[in-house]
Design goal:
273 residues; transmembrane; two-stranded antiparallel sheet; single chain; mainly alpha; extended; 75% helix; 2 strands
């Protein structure tokens, strides 16, 4: 909305000048809190490292004392040590973690730790969306390459594969830093796929390529189709579960079955007293 006259402009300026002073105070408080949080994070990291060091020292000593008569005390200590290790692992989920070697090579020492649980979930969701969208694009590109023989289209598809797998390895490394339980073999598979796609990208237009090309494109059509169906099924299942939870959130305790790739976990949602 524009000002009708100069006096109104001056009045609006004086108004936002007062608001800016409030903003400055809030920003100063924010920066102080950020500094305080950074100091607390450093203290927590040191304390966790100290706890781990002491636990390892006690564990080594217990291994030498396993033949002691007081086995009940030894067993109790082992149980307490394992419990404490799990507690420390839970605490570490809320603290910044060092990047792995791969991320250090790609990104340097940039901190990629996500400390907020909602942000972690959102990043994981974006990762799944990325795979779904690129699988759909890959399906149509591989199908077009199967039906036609255009070098530009082939190179576009192969470049997409290199970029896709390279991006996946980076995103999965970030997820791993933030506590994701992505299997090692799954990540290794994507590293190998990145290299293989790069080799195919520079493969010359030779007789061996024309022999290999049809089978390769058929494989990509099938694997892309499977990925799209699997990812769509997963997202539909997540949507139905969230809808179910929202409908019955205020009801008495109910079992909610959440399917995952490897197992089915059960969680209870209900009203707290």
């Amino acid at each position: 909305m524009e000002c009708a006259n100069l006096d109104e402009c001056v009045q609006n300026w004086e108004s936002i000048a007062g608001e800016y002073k409030t903003l400055e105070n809030v920003n100063k408080e924010y920066l102080a809190k950020v500094e305080e949080v950074s100091d607390l994070q450093g203290q927590c990291v040191k304390q966790v490292s100290h706890q781990k060091y002491r636990l390892n020292f006690i564990a080594k000593s217990l291994k030498k004392l396993e033949k002691e008569d007081r086995q009940d005390i030894v067993q109790r200590l082992w149980k307490d040590i394992n419990t404490r290790r799990q507690q420390l692992s839970d605490i570490e989920q809320s603290l910044p973690k060092p990047n792995g070697s791969y991320l250090k090579i790609i990104l340097g020492n940039v901190n990629v730790s996500i400390l907020n649980k909602e942000d972690k979930f959102r990043y994981k969701d974006e990762y799944e969306k990325f795979k779904l969208v690129l699988s759909i694009i890959g399906f149509f590109l591989s199908l077009m390459n199967l039906l036609t023989k255009r070098r530009a289209l082939e190179l576009t598809f192969l470049f997409l594969l290199v970029w896709y797998y390279c991006t996946l390895t980076i995103r999965e490394s970030i997820l791993k830093v933030n506590g994701s339980k992505i299997k090692g073999w799954w990540r290794v598979h994507h590293f190998i796929s990145t290299v293989a796609s790069a080799v195919l990208l520079v493969w010359p237009n030779s007789e061996t390529w024309f022999i290999f090309r049809p089978q390769f494109m058929i494989f990509n059509v099938l694997i892309s189709k499977y990925n799209v169906l699997f990812l769509l099924n997963t997202r539909i299942a997540e949507f139905l579960i969230l809808t179910f939870i929202n409908i019955y959130r205020c009801s008495s305790i109910i079992p909610v079955f959440i399917p995952t790739r490897s197992s089915v976990s059960t969680k209870s949602f209900g009203r707290t007293s």
